[in-house]
């Protein structure tokens, strides 16, 4: 029981870090960087902040995946026998991995925006008039990715809550999902 409680706690806390960190970055960090007086500082400062967050987010995500494995191991019988649990586990894993890919790709696009920071910008993900097509495209893509990340994280949290609901004794006894 204690091992499962620890794994579930880590699982939920790391998903919360992924969600909260990405949402704060998209709103707070990018918003604050957009107020820099020097337009060349806007993307640079945002990139610096995201760069400082990246190792913590990576560690949280890796720990999340390890805790997922621990939870799956502890629940392997339920996954195999209870109606819809295996299907939902595969679905949640696919959403988690897709979210990880989006997060990784956002980091790659963010580096491109950072490399073009000397052009200046209206905001971290908002190009200024006259921006090169390369910077404009990267910032537009980065903006979409940075909003997709908390959406994926929220989706993972919701699917985790669904798994919890599936464990209610009345649902387990009935084999319901």
Brief rundown of the structure:
With 177 residues, the protein is mostly helical. 82% of the residues lie in helices and 0% in strands.
Top keywords for this entry?
mainly alpha; single chain; 6 helices; 177 residues
Could you explain how this protein is built, in words?
The chain is an all-alpha fold. The chain has one domain. It is 82% helix and 0% strand. The protein starts with a helix and ends with a helix. The mean pLDDT is 91.
List the helices and strands and how they pair.
Blueprint: H1 2-33, H2 39-74, H3 76-81, H4 85-115, H5 133-166, H6 169-174
Helix pairs in contact: 1-2, 1-5, 2-4, 4-5
Low-confidence stretches: none
Strand composition percent? under 5%
Tell me about the largest β-sheet.
Answer: none
Terminal Cα span: 23 Å
């Amino acid at each position: 029981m204690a091992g499962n409680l620890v794994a579930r706690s880590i699982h939920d806390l790391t998903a919360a870090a992924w969600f909260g960190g990405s949402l704060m970055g998209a709103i707070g960090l990018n918003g604050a960087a957009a107020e820099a007086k020097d337009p060349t500082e806007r993307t640079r400062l945002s990139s610096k902040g995201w760069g400082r967050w990246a190792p913590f987010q990576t560690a949280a995500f890796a720990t999340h995946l390890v805790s997922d494995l621990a939870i799956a191991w502890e629940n392997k019988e339920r996954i195999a026998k209870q109606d819809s649990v295996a299907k939902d586990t595969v679905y949640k894993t696919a959403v988690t991995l897709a979210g990880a890919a989006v997060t990784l790709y956002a980091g790659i696009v963010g580096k491109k925006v950072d490399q073009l920071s000397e052009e200046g910008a209206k905001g971290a993900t908002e190009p200024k008039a006259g921006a090169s097509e390369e910077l404009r495209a990267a910032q537009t893509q980065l903006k979409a990715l940075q909003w997709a990340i908390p959406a994926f994280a929220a989706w993972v949290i919701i699917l985790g809550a669904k798994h919890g609901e599936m464990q209610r004794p009345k649902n387990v006894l009935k084999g319901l999902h």
